[in-house]
């Protein structure tokens, strides 16, 4: 079959596959599910899921903070009237289960056969304002939860339906903002926090940033390709191939029913810069052959023969760099690694099917400066090669010093994360969350399950006293600013039975008094606040609360101290406890970050070792190849330590990805060296020829990669920003190591100082 007919057939098949991919891409949706960042397969996750079935999620709430007008307190009648109107509006919303508001909190009192809720506030009776405020600020559980300590702000705690998704969550937020505007609350005086807020903001920003990054990447790559090839086809063909790979990769995601989230949103940008590599190597070699006088068909044959093997190996190592992210227990990272790795392989397939077909069908390009004896790049690379040889001792010395300094600085890197790590410190959403930490109990949830032992139930006096002891420790030492448990229920019922006086807010003095209280608890057990803290049969209870987001390092230390306290100070024959909750699960991710990173890097190193051994059957060459690719990783780790950048979920992926991408050019270099050594036995001449042959592609692809990743610096997410910055730096240091350390290491260590090395000046540059 003629080659042109094969090309048309290939384009037809590829077009049909692209149409199928486009169909599945249309099914893709943006999503940000906080629960996806829990460690999949972890026993603590299974336990927490059972816990939520008994007590509900600890993050199904929305906080709405309202500041009083300047010069007023929250007890001003006009302000309270607006708060009450807002409360009634919120209660009518479809996805709102319950609302705790300053105007709805009440003091229960039992009289005779029934109970009454006496409001703490009487907005219509100004004379009672001082009495009301005094009572509120003496009542446990109100200050820091509903009222701020300085009486300048209040909070509406809005309980939402479980696992509220983005569309209804956005609808609720829109309604609340509309109501706030109608009630004349200025934007600067109200603040939102909660999962619905984070979910809404993250998804909207993902959509916007994906469009921005893709636009910037297209402009940047187009400019670099034009600067490199100075022909329209040298720009258009790589873009067609890469966009096809992105379309296919996203199509596979859509077919698997995976949504675009904070991590997978990086796939198009990653592919745009990474997927260009093979096309640049192919077109560079193709243009070189044409420049040396080869026909179009011969140039393409030589290009595919010489580039196919190296490109296949580099696609394998790059995809492995992403596939190793599948060792992560965090689902978004797992999906990002899986589908980006697949997309890299698809880019390789398109580079060696779609690109050759298009090159074959196009007319032979007219090069701007045809040269029979080489290209201008040869002279530049030849001079650079000589400079590297002349300054080899300086290069080795500087490299050694940089490595030593980087290792020292890298030891300062710490694993630390917070709930809103991906937002910058000055982000409006993060500032809103900070408002609740400054004025109220905070936004970090705390959960401790309580299980009575020895045949007791949760309302046993010994169990209640142990629970009260734990509460005291949590508030004094742990940093819990708000806490609620079955102890809260029993104290509240006792207070209600004794006229509602604050002095009666305490546990019963003995079992006889408790027995009388237990008979009255049935009056309250149907109330939501009771079922949220204790199971109806009393077999288990919940100690819940909120605190400041102290970061995972501090939280781990606090949790270790808490577990030690529970082991040594709480009688396990009376009460057993287990720390759980969404925050605990997020913190657990940090325990796996180092292991996942080491596992991923180890897999990458093993695969590169196998490839080099298969090519050269030399352990020395394996070491020679690994050093220039590990040095940039060490330098970037040192940069992180120097700049105080913490290791967290978003930055933990940097090293495995960067190594997998950086080794790409090395694989191309050594595969070309292997081909050259087959007909050039002199190592020096072979290295020099390979340097001239591969140098241009190495520099161009590295510029594209660094430039492409630099577009991520415009992200409003800190994690994305650091991915762009640190991977870009790794690749920048990588190309320097590739053009300096790699040839020197090959010449000096692959063989014992061949004669050609001692007299490099006898070699001329073509």
UniProtKB/TrEMBL annotation:
SUPFAM superfamilies (alphabetical): Multidrug efflux transporter AcrB transmembrane domain
Subcellular localization is given as: Cell membrane
Task: Kindly state which keywords UniProt assigns to this record, in alphabetical order.
Answer: Cell membrane, Membrane, Transmembrane, Transmembrane helix
Could you tell me which residue ranges the SSD domain spans? 239-361
- Give the record's membrane topology: Multi-pass membrane protein
Q: Where would you find the membrane-spanning parts of this chain?
A: 210-229, 236-260, 266-288, 309-330, 336-362, 394-415, 593-616, 623-643, 649-670, 691-715, 721-750
Descriptive protein name:
MMPL family transporter
Q: Which organism is it from?
A: Hymenobacter negativus
Q: What is the lineage of its organism?
A: Bacteria, Pseudomonadati, Bacteroidota, Cytophagia, Cytophagales
